[in-house]
Design a protein that fits this description.
This protein is an alpha/beta fold. The protein folds into 3 domains: about 70 residues, Orthogonal Bundle (Arc Repressor Mutant, subunit A); about 130 residues, 2-Layer Sandwich (Nucleotidyltransferase, domain 5); about 160 residues, 2-Layer Sandwich (Nucleotidyltransferase, domain 5). Helix content is about 40%, strand content about 20%. It is built from 15 helices and 16 strands. The protein has a 5-stranded mixed β-sheet with strand order 6-5-4-7-11, with helices on both faces. The longest helix is centred in the last third of the chain and has 25 residues. It starts with 15 loop residues before the first helix and ends in a 10-residue tail after the last helix. It binds zinc ion (ZN). Zinc ion binds next to loops.
């Protein structure tokens, strides 16, 4: 009997290596366009025959166009590959506990126009308001150029139905989101959990020079804390679409009460609100009371970071402690999935210089090998919000990158 070599075992996901190659090829074309087939083969280190299949797939999927070079040379001019021509637009909608932002951009995430409003938490009212703002953004000729809508929600989503399964901060359970909104807007629409969408943006709009785009975890720290895990070039969703919920794995069993109602979750130590509460010297719940309108103005995470950069010791101490808790949770991710790198997004990355040493110390204290402790941790400091870029990626990524929707 043939012995199984465990070292060679890889999950038998559908067309794994082909998907990974297509993703790598697309990112290379995006970075180096226009690019000849020979150049692409050289950069990928694969044979020309592999490139032929890959390019056919990408052209068929509408992700890449191929045009004859205008360079004057002897013989047949080489055809050059580039990402589909600009002019097409995406509408990204980021729903956060406190604020909802809409961005109309091109398919690379370059902004055309944006607008926002304070989030209303009733789903029907929220959908009506989003529809109104979307119609205002999509007036005139823009409507026809818009290829689709990517909606980012702070919670777990069934990607096939666009139903929000559980959004603890919003207190939503089993809320149908895509169907009612898509019906009024009349455009193709994807609804996705924020960290998953951020991970997709890294895969499909990121620069491959920044690090591995097929094996990484994306951690987003905002009103909550979420994680999108990518393995073998695919987002790990889990059997019932709740994988990656590291934010609700407890660091202690007696800690602050989390938005999910349980105690001591990673999120309850690491979210923006947790940092602000720490700065104020208040329990997390008290800070929430202030936020819900007692009249007193609560500092934002951006205020606390600015104070720390001005030398305010209380702000520095609050952020350093956040660094420690952030590191403890990152160590859990490293122990669980051992990614090639971890990207961290959110306002908190502006305090990287303040938090970094404590974060790295916490990681070193809770990982099991020097190689695991050395996992690169990168702040995502893109000029556009990574969540909105995630919304754009939901539209810009080719069909085969998305879950098949009935
Ligand atoms: Zn929780």
């Amino acid at each position: 009997m043939r012995k199984l070599n465990p070292a060679n075992f890889r999950p038998a996901t559908r067309a794994t290596s082909r998907d990974v190659n297509r993703q790598i090829a697309l990112n290379l074309i995006r970075e180096h366009q226009p690019l000849s087939r020979a150049d692409l083969a050289r950069r990928m280190g694969v044979r020309r025959s592999v490139i032929t299949t890959l390019v056919t797939d990408l052209v068929d999927a509408g992700a890449v166009v191929e045009a004859a070079s205008t360079e004057v040379r002897r013989g047949r001019p080489p055809t050059l590959l580039s990402i589909r021509p600009s002019g097409e637009l995406a509408l990204a909608i980021d729903i956060r506990f406190s604020r909802t932002t809409l961005l109309l951009s091109d398919l690379d995430g370059r902004p055309v126009e944006s607008r926002g409003f304070d989030t209303v938490h009733d789903p029907e009212q929220l959908i009506a308001r989003i529809a109104k703002e979307s119609r205002a953004l999509l007036k005139g000729a823009r409507r026809a150029r818009c290829k689709g809508v990517g909606v980012i929600v702070p919670g777990m989503v069934d990607p096939a139905t666009g139903v929000v399964l559980n959004a603890p901060q919003m207190k939503w359970r089993d809320v149908p989101f895509r169907q009612p909104l898509a019906r009024v807007l009349g455009l193709p629409m994807q609804v996705e959990n924020a960290p998953v969408a951020c991970a997709l943006a890294k895969m499909w709009l990121g620069r491959s020079s920044a690090g591995d785009t097929t094996d990484f975890a994306y951690v987003i720290v905002s009103d909550g804390v979420g994680v999108g895990v990518v393995k073998h070039g695919q987002v790990v969703r889990g059997a019932t679409a709740t994988a990656g919920e590291f934010g609700h794995i407890p660091l202690t069993l007696t800690g602050p009460t989390c938005s999910c109602g349980r105690q001591g979750c990673w999120e309850s130590y690491t979210s923006n609100l947790a940092t602000v509460a720490r700065y104020l010297g208040r329990p997390l719940d008290d800070a929430r009371v202030v936020r819900r309108g007692s009249g007193a103005r609560r500092p934002s995470i951006t205020d606390v970071i600015a104070l720390a950069h001005d030398g305010d010791q209380r702000a520095i101490a609050a952020l350093e402690e956040t660094g420690t808790y952030l590191g403890l949770g990152l160590a859990n991710i490293i122990c669980a999935v051992n990614p090639a790198r971890i990207v961290v997004g959110g306002e908190i990355t502006a305090a990287w210089d303040v938090m970094r040493a404590d974060m790295q110390r916490a990681i070193a204290s809770r990982t099991l090998t020097p190689a695991a402790a050395a996992t690169p941790i990168q702040p995502d400091q893109t000029t556009i919000s990574p969540r909105l870029l995630g919304g754009v990626a939901l539209v810009a990524a080719p069909r085969f990158a998305m879950p098949q929707v009935a």
